[in-house]
């Protein structure tokens, strides 16, 4: 099977690892945006008393309407890097 794959592989036109990562990020963002729209439609239908429910494999971020935001890096403390007391419990 590996030999057959190698025979039909088109390596000069293959995506680089970076291109593949970028494409995957874009596709996943598009999918989440579509799922958010789907969940909004389900919520609207439910508010009108229609029998609608979210898909079992729907992204929880879309259902809950949340978006992850990267936290800012922690501020550097004045005492950073200084030794501290460590307690060990046990034998």
Written description of the protein model:
The protein is mainly alpha-helical. 47% of the residues lie in helices and 0% in strands. It has three helices and no strands. The longest helix is centred in the middle third of the chain and has 31 residues, at 17-47. It is flat and about 55 Å long.
Which residue ranges are poorly predicted, with pLDDT under 50 across at least 5 consecutive positions?
none
Tell me roughly what share of residues is in helical segments. 40-55%
Quaternary organisation: single chain
Number of strands: 0
- What global shape is seen? flat
Strand content: under 5%
Strand and helix order: HHH
- Taking Cα atoms only, what radius of gyration do you get, to the nearest Å? 24 Å
Spatial separation of the terminal alpha carbons: 55 Å
The profile of the biggest β sheet is: none
Q: What order do the helices and strands come in, and which of them pair?
A:
Layout: H1 2-8, H2 17-47, H3 60-64
List keywords for this structure.
91 residues, mainly alpha, 3 helices
Summarize the structure.
The chain has helices at residues 2-8, 17-47, 60-64.
């Amino acid at each position: 099977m590996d030999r057959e794959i190698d025979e039909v592989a088109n390596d000069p036109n293959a995506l680089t690892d970076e291109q593949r990562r970028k494409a995957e990020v874009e596709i996943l963002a598009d999918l989440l945006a579509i799922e958010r729209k789907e969940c909004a439609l389900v919520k609207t239908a439910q508010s009108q008393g229609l029998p609608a429910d979210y898909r079992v494999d729907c992204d929880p971020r879309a259902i809950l309407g949340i978006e992850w935001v990267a936290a800012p890096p922690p501020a550097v403390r004045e005492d950073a890097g200084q030794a501290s007391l460590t307690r060990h419990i046990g034998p």
